[in-house]
Amino acid sequence: MTVPPGRTRIWEIDFLRGLSIILMVGYHLLFDLGEMVGLGSFPARRSLIPGRLPVTFVNIAGRHSLLIYIVHQPIILAILYLFRLIR
Question: Would you say residue 48 lies in a domain?
Fold first, then answer.
């Protein structure tokens, strides 16, 4: 990617973009593999874990991961934008 004269690239933004893509690919790989294995291995579609899961931070965060993602993305972008204005 070419940079216009007089402007510099912010390596932090490039790093975070690359990291988010790597994490997204890894997440989708695990999710898709789980779906493929699960469909063939568990035709009854019942959970192997008896009862309900305990209420922990990880379980709560997992159930609300989309909301967490939607809320934290604009916050991170605003912080990076402010960082760019200060710099």
Answer: yes
